[in-house]
Specification:
This protein is an alpha/beta fold. It has 9 helices and 4 strands. The chain has 2 domains: 53 residues, no CATH class; 123 residues, Vaccinia Virus protein VP39 (Rossmann fold, 3-Layer(aba) Sandwich).
Length: 200
């Protein structure tokens, strides 16, 4: 299998135009197969096509407890609140939301994403009535504010968001978000600037 893969990749660098054409055809067929077989990949392509200017992170892969130090710190800071309200912006298939629900079982957590397929996976998995999942462009999310913390993890990692997007998120929170590593979150918060992980 590795030999076949090496030969195919080598064809892409060949001086022979027929070999290069064959290489592109094989790659195109592979992409078509992945699109037809994988609902996740189909959702990524469709979302990128429909919401091109609003999608900041095309990748939907995630896992639970990705940032344990950050989650533990937020657990400590939000523990005194009776019912902290948390927003997970770019929640993908919900792993971050479900992780935070374990750290802060008293919290009301809203997960938001622009990929409809991801939101369906969240809803299908969810068994907690303190959690809800909304589409980025929904009227319900447009009205949502008053959060005690906003998590925006790796969402702006590959695409620079417009200032309007970050300002809108910053206006929805009582206290400024906390960065996981790098930079001085405290000085930026004191200056009145929202702090977004993965952007700076």
């Amino acid at each position: 299998m590795n030999l076949i893969r090496t030969l195919i990749e080598g064809a892409g660098q060949s001086r022979n135009p027929l070999f290069r054409l064959g290489y592109r055809a094989i790659k195109a067929l592979g992409a078509l197969r992945r699109f037809l077989v994988s609902a996740r990949i189909r959702s990524q392509v469709i979302t990128r096509t429909i919401y091109k200017d609003q999608q900041f992170q095309a990748e939907t892969a995630s896992r639970e407890d990705r940032y344990p130090e950050l989650f533990a710190e937020c657990q400590k800071r939000l523990a005194p609140l009776l019912n902290p309200r948390i927003l997970c912006f770019g929640c993908s298939t919900g792993e971050e939301v479900f992780t935070l629900a374990r750290y802060l079982p008293q919290a009301e957590i809203t997960g938001v994403d622009i990929n409809p397929w991801c939101l369906k996976q969240c809803t299908r998995t969810n068994r907690n009535d303190r959690l809800r999942f909304l589409h980025r462009n929904s009227a319900e999310f447009a009205r949502a504010d008053g959060f005690d913390a906003i998590f925006c993890m790796a969402v702006f990692q590959r695409t620079d968001p417009p200032d309007q997007e970050t300002d809108t998120l910053g206006n929805r929170v009582h206290a400024r978000p906390v960065r996981s590593r790098g930079g001085d979150a405290g000085s930026k918060a004191a200056a009145g600037r929202p702090v977004f992980p993965g952007r700076e």
